Amino acid sequence: MPAGHPYIRNISDVGAAPGFHVLPDPPVPGAPAGRWWPHRSLELGWLRTHHARFDLLHLHFGYEHLSTRDLRSVVETLHAYDKPLVLTVHDLRNPHQVDPRPHREALDLLIPSADAVITLTPGAAEHIASTWGRVATVIPHPNVVDPERARRASTRGERDSFVVGVHAKSVRANCDAVAVADQLARTTSTLPDARLVVHAHDDEGGRRAAAELGRRGIAVTVGPPFSDPELYDYLEGLDVSVLPHRFGTHSGWLEACYDLGTAVLAPDCGFYHQQAPCLLYHRTETALDLDSLDAALRRAFSQRPRWRADPDRRRADRSAITSAHNALYHAVTSTARVPR
Q1: Gene3D superfamilies, per this entry (predicted)?
Q2: Which of 136, 277, 293, 302 could disulfide-link 128, Cβ–Cβ 3.0 to 4.6 Å?
Q3: In this structure, is residue 281 part of a structural domain?
Q4: Judgement on whether residues 204 and 277 belong to the same structural domain of the protein
């Protein structure tokens, strides 16, 4: 869970029977259709009522609203019904939380308690092994963009202009779009036929970021979050998408760019470079290396990298990723669980 996320949706809908069935996200009372957060499978009442409907719970994300005590109750309830817990560690540091302690406390509970641990990159697996002593199975992120949609992007020709994009995506706790866009504006102003496009979500944080950038003379388009088709059209219109993260681990945005052939400038604070080809700039949680960001953008401008995942390869990889999950699910449900 959540079933509605592209990661889960793409590995459970591969055309042929994957060997497992993902339950649809339970409706959230009072929320519009399609809203899957906060996920009801983490409610004790839901687990007690519906435990006979599932064989295991696979937790990816969306548990930051729960205290460590609440999560412990979830784990204990799963154990009481002899339901294995599979955990995919997408984030070693939660991008939504300024304070790293709540997520670290959650991982301190979940990683030792899980019957199997998955992560996306070797670097993250090494961190999990050194910190918690657990061996995490490395299963790469599947495609985000449908292969047929990605195939259409591969036919685009070269542009005369060079378009750089940065997005204040609801101004997450790890987002430093103002400082990043400020430097990108300085660099693009010195590059022939280069332009910067900045988008911000129409919420309090996005409007605040837009106002600050406006005071610096940088134009910002403020609007609601993109739908998936709108996002893919937007990314396809860029030569470079810049991830303005102060901290992080992995990125679905990077995967979408890789599907569409849009180059990415990513910070070196996570394991983005192990996910897909990208250019790196240096930053820590408290400091942005402006010179490295400038150099990375100039390199992108001069080299015009067009790293694009082959749609047929992505389709084959997706089948392999699905098979890897199926094998792991079979292992944890056919082996007696050892209490932790």
Answers
A1: Glycogen Phosphorylase B (3.40.50.2000)
A2: 136
A3: yes
A4: yes
Is 161:193 a contact under the CB 8 Å cutoff? yes
Convert the pLDDT of each residue in 49-99 to its tens digit: 999 999 999 999 899 999 999 999 999 999 999 999 999 999 999 999 999
58 and 168 in a single domain? The answer is no
Residue keyed to tokens 């987002």: 175
Determine the Cα–Cα distance for residues 39 and 116; give it in Å rounded to an integer.
Answer: 21
Q: Three-state SS string across 222-262, please?
A: EECCCCHHHHHHHHHCCCEEECCECCCCCCHHHHHHHHHCC
Note whether 247 and 174 are within 8 A (CB): yes
- Do residue 137 and residue 23 come from a single domain? yes
**Domain assignment present for 162:** yes
Distance CA 225, CA 223 (A): 7
How many domains does one find in the chain? 2
Domain that holds residue 185: 147-303
Q: What global pTM score does this model have?
A: 0.92
All residues at 6 or more sequence positions from 187 whose CB lies less than 8 Å from its CB, including other chains: 293, 294, 297, 298
**Separation CA 149–CA 311 (nearest Å):** 9
